[in-house]
């Protein structure tokens, strides 16, 4: 049974009828450009085939009512009366709240939600949940779908409803991605350019480790980047080249220098990776991924033992062009670029090696670049 069939079937069980719509939003994997988005920098994510689906029908009162297949529980809230609590429903409530703040007039709906994106793994199940909810409101209300604006409103849920100072990358790629393409995003102008990903496999390797307090560490890095920019006399770390930076490092403490060096060098790596991708030069791309990992490990200090071991396991395979941790860090997933014809061998070898060293079973996902948020049945 496909996931779409699963929400359809559950909807019929819960509501005794066919849904009016099925909407879907994907997770994403970031190929390169980590912790640069909230510094107005560059990123290169792509949407993945794992997604969150909602099967729904309109309601003609004020109540939004949802059954979560993953959690096997109901959640509900009134559109006119949204208050902060905690749990999975917050993403949907927060989204409805900020849509209404932005003067969208919303209608209510009821439905079933199911997702197969691992949670808290750095594949942005949260952005998928925000955007799939936005799409559900879009279907039952009367407004036009502006993907960029939906991404910005979704980002508000993370920033203002949940208090995580994350950038726009996740929401923007989840909202706008095109099948077969990676998105290179300028997080200042929000300009997005699509680059075809072909003749190469993207392999996602979940360390199956999750760290607590990730949000507070994330916000700490955010604050350090802001502080570094201030001391350097620039608006954000986007506004300086690595060369200029090297002449100004005396303005910073050792710690802030390391944090800033990661972001500034990472921006340059994304630009270089874009050029490599244009030429299908995966060797160079792979080297940039490894440099990104080292910078995240040593300068930004957001990697972990499990992530470092996973990256090593991947790099030991001759079919692998490059690998790095992906997402916020401290656990979760790594990503590798692998020669397509060897993906099965690659995946098996990495799983075995990782298990030998960590005594943890890794989960490996192979995913093409998928479409962004859309309606799949209406
Ligand atoms: P990430 O975005 O890296 O996956 P987050 O901590 O930002 O991790 O978001 C994960 C949270 O999103 C989960 O704890 C849960 O509240 C919510 N979530 C994700 N997927 C689903 C789902 N299928 N159904 C309900 N809630 C979900
Ligand atoms: Mg998230």
- Mean pLDDT value: 97
Q: What is the H/E order? A: HEEEEHEHHHEEEHHHHHEEHEE
CATH architecture of the largest domain: 2-Layer Sandwich
Largest sheet: 8 strands, mixed
**How would the global form be characterised?**
globular
Structural class: alpha+beta
CATH fold description of the largest domain: Ribosomal Protein S5, domain 2
- CATH top level label of the largest domain: Alpha Beta
Number of domains: 2
- Bound small molecules, deduplicated: adenosine-5'-diphosphate, magnesium ion
Radius of gyration: 21 Å
Q: What does this entry look like structurally?
A:
The protein has 378 residues and is an alpha+beta fold. Helices cover 42% and strands 23% of the residues. It has helices spanning 3-15, 89-101, 125-140, 147-161, 169-176, 214-232, 242-246, 254-278, 282-298, 305-315, 343-358; strands spanning 21-32, 42-59, 63-68, 73-78, 108-115, 181-186, 192-196, 201-206, 320-325, 333-338, 363-366, 374-377. Strands 1, 2, 3, 4, 5, 6, 7 and 12 form an eight-stranded mixed β-sheet that branches. It has a four-stranded antiparallel β-sheet with strand order 9-10-8-11. Strand 9 (320-325) and strand 10 (333-338) form a beta hairpin. Helix 8 packs antiparallel against helix 9 (282-298). Adenosine-5'-diphosphate (ADP) binds at residues 52, 68, 70-71, 88, 91, 113, 115, 117, 119-126, 129, 327.
């Amino acid at each position: 049974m496909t996931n779409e069939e699963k929400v359809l079937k559950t909807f019929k069980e819960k509501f005794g009828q066919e849904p009016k719509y099925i909407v879907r939003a994907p997770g994403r994997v970031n190929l390169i450009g980590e912790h640069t988005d909230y510094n107005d920098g560059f990123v290169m994510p792509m949407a993945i085939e794992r997604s969150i689906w909602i099967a729904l029908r309109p309601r003609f009162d004020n109540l939004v009512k949802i059954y979560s297949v993953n959690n096997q529980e109901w959640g509900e809230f009134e559109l006119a009366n949204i208050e902060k609590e905690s749990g999975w429903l917050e993403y949907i409530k927060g989204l409805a709240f900020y849509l209404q703040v932005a003067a969208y007039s919303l209608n209510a709906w009821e439905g079933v939600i199911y997702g197969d994106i691992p949670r808290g793994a750095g594949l942005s199940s949260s952005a998928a949940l925000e955007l799939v909810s936005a799409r559900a409101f879009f279907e039952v209300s009367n407004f036009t779908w502006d993907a960029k604006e939906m991404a910005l409103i979704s980002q508000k849920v993370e920033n203002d409803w949940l208090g995580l100072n994350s950038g726009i990358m996740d929401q923007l790629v989840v909202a706008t991605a095109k099948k077969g393409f990676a998105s290179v995003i300028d997080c200042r102008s929000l300009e997005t350019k699509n680059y075809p990903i072909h003749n190469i496999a993207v392999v996602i390797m979940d360390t199956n480790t999750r760290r607590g307090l990730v949000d507070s560490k994330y916000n700490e890095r955010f604050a350090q980047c802001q502080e570094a920019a201030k001391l350097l006399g620039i608006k954000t770390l986007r506004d300086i080249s690595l060369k200029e930076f090297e002449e100004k490092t005396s303005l910073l403490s050792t710690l802030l220098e390391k944090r800033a060096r990661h972001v500034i060098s990472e921006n340059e790596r994304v630009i270089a990776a874009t050029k490599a991708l244009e030429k299908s030069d995966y060797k160079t791309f792979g080297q940039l991924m490894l440099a990104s990992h080292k910078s995240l490990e040593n300068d930004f200090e957001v990697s972990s033992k499990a992530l470092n071991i996973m990256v090593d396991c991947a790099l030991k395979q001759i079919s692998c062009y490059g690998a790095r941790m992906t997402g916020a860090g401290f656990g979760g997933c790594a990503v590798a670029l692998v020669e397509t014809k060897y993906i099965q061998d690659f995946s098996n070898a990495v799983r075995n090696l990782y298990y030998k060293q960590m005594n943890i079973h890794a989960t490996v996902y192979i995913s093409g670049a998928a479409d962004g948020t859309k309606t799949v049945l209406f």
